[in-house]
Amino acid sequence: MELARLKKLKLSPRPIGQRLFADTILRTGFTNPFRPTKIQIENFDRLPKSTGSFIVMNHTDRYTCWPFQYYLHREHRRYTSTWVKAKYYQNPAMAWILDRFNNIPIPSLGYLIVKDFERATGHPPSPTEYEILKRFADGTTDEESLQKQLILDRSKTSHGLMLTLGSGRNPGAEHWRKSVRDRFDELMSEVVRLNREALATGLDIMIFPEGTRHKRLGQGFTGAAQMILATGATVVPIGASGIDRLFPGGSPFSRGGTAKFRIGTPLRPGHELKHFEDGPAFVPFTPDARLQEHRFRGLTELMMDRINELLDPEYQRVADGVAKTGASRFI
Fold first, then answer.
1. Which one-letter DSSP state was computed for residue 126?
2. Which of 1, 182, 205, 236 lies 20 to 30 Å (CA to CA) from residue 107?
3. Rounded to an integer, what distance in angstroms lies between the CA atom of residue 64 and that of residue 19?
């Protein structure tokens, strides 16, 4: 994901991809007389009317948001942007389609690390290689400790790391760290601009704080909270139940059933969000933002609690959740 790619992205108040997809594929499946789909929306009036808002929702399956987006289009001519992992933009054809749906690509520091390693070595990093680079890039490990580790480890792992750290016009570990962090800061500043633009256009921004799919509500990551506080926008929690039963396998055609969306009480800046708003300015997702992690974690836990209250019992969280870790999230 390059900075020039983000700067070229144009968000539409009436995205052609969402409209065509809703009126063809989704409508065909949802209105099947033999297997009808019922979409239940509770408390729709809680969505702000005059501006866009952040919508945070649980993520039970790959198509969780589709019935809700369909309802927004068919009943209210209202549209969304959705956060999508940058790894899905590596295929040009897929990137073109995602743009037509108004999606906003979200790069990450880990994504840049994986891409740098691949360019230097021709293959993805192992979990160990990724973890070493990630800890060094985010400042958890200093250069002296890194060099000692490389000297002690004369394996293939060390070779791949040295190729990555020594790539570029000014090779060296500290240069690489500054380079990857500077590139990431630039990317995230542009992502913040795109989110502000989406909200100002009247688009709702859909985020799944879990970062991956779980039938039961899992742990939320703090990225959504960071963007909400950075933009000063209202956030609306929504609980989605039953959508995992609508779509068989990878098919986009519903097999019938009921999709339930319960909309919670909005969390507004200066009111419900006031407790989390005090603090210095920051760029979301950057290493500097991590210094304020307590703010983001507190808001994330509040949002996840609100989502949990809006779910049917079979989708509510349990104690132990499992999430992808390491470089596998970016490949």
1. P
2. 236
3. 17
CA atoms lying within 13 Å on the CB side of residue 154:
1
- Alpha-carbon span 75 to 5, nearest angstrom: 33
Neighbours of 27 (CB within 10 A): 14
Helices 127-137 and 109-121 sit at what angle, rounded to 10 degrees? 120
In this prediction the pTM is 0.85
**Paired sense of beta strands 235-241 and 257-263, if any:** antiparallel
User: In three state form, how does the secondary structure of 248-268 look?
Assistant: CCCCCCCCCEEEEEEECCCEC
Edge to edge, the sheet with strand 257-263 lists 37-42, 257-263, 235-241, 54-57, 204-207, 80-85, 104-106
Q: How many CB atoms lie within 10 A of CB 309?
A: 13
- Domain segments of the chain as ranges: 104-207+327-331
State the DSSP code for 285.
Answer: T
| Contact criterion met (CB below 8 Å) for 287 and 138 | yes
pLDDT of the chain along its 331 residues, tens only?
788 889 999 999 999 999 999 999 999 999 999 999 999 999 999 999 878 999 999 999 989 999 999 999 999 999 999 999 888 888 899 999 999 999 999 988 888 999 899 998 999 988 888 988 898 988 888 888 877 777 666 666 677 888 888 755 446 788 898 999 999 999 999 999 999 999 999 999 999 999 888 899 999 999 999 999 999 999 999 999 999 999 878 899 999 999 999 999 999 999 999 999 988 888 898 878 888 999 999 999 999 999 999 999 999 998 755 444 444 444 4
What DSSP state is assigned to residue 289?
A: G
Whole-angstrom Cα Rg for the chain: 21
Longest dimension (CA), the chain: 68
Distances (CA, A) of 13 to 48, 63, 290: 16, 22, 33
Taking alpha carbons only, the member of 14, 31, 131, 32 closest to residue 72 is 14
